[in-house]
Amino acid sequence: MTLDLLPIDQRARIVAVDWNALVPEEARRLRALGLEEGATVSIAHRGVAGGRDPIAIAIGRMTIAVRRAHAHAMEVSPL
């Protein structure tokens, strides 16, 4: 399952990221924020407009807003 499909408040571990699907600068930013393999995350909120962007991801004590395309590049395993 990809992160963009994870139900709200369901915790999951990131098991793989398709870094090649992301712009290199965006990939570096996501890694710097801790969104990489092994991280435990959950979806805190989804946008309500058309594409449901942005997606608010809770990681540790932070909440990070990412585009749906970024979340789609992350494979997760529900906990």
Molecular structure report:
It comes from Novosphingobium lindaniclasticum LE124. With 79 residues, this protein is α+β, with helices and mostly antiparallel strands. It has a single domain, classed as Roll (SH3 type barrels), CATH 2.30.30.90. The protein has helices at 24-32, 68-72, and strands at 12-17, 40-46, 55-59, 62-66, 74-78. A hairpin with a 2-residue loop joins strand 3 (55-59) and strand 4.
Put the structure in a nutshell.
One of its GO terms (molecular function) is transition metal ion binding. This protein is of the alpha+beta class and 79 residues long.
Structural class: alpha+beta
CATH architecture verdict: Roll
Distance between the termini: 12 Å
- Average pLDDT rating: 92
- Helicity level: 10-25%
Indicate the proportion of strand residues.
Answer: 35-45%
CATH fold title: SH3 type barrels
Q: What string, H for helix and E for strand, traces the elements in order?
A: EHEEEHE
Could you say how many structural domains there are in total?
1
Radius of gyration: 11 Å
Strand order of the largest sheet: 4-3-2-1-5
* Number of DSSP E strands: 5
CATH superfamily: Ferrous iron transport protein A (FeoA)
Inertia-based shape: globular
CATH class reads Mainly Beta
Oligomer: single chain
- Note poorly predicted spans: none
Q: What's the total helix number?
A: 2
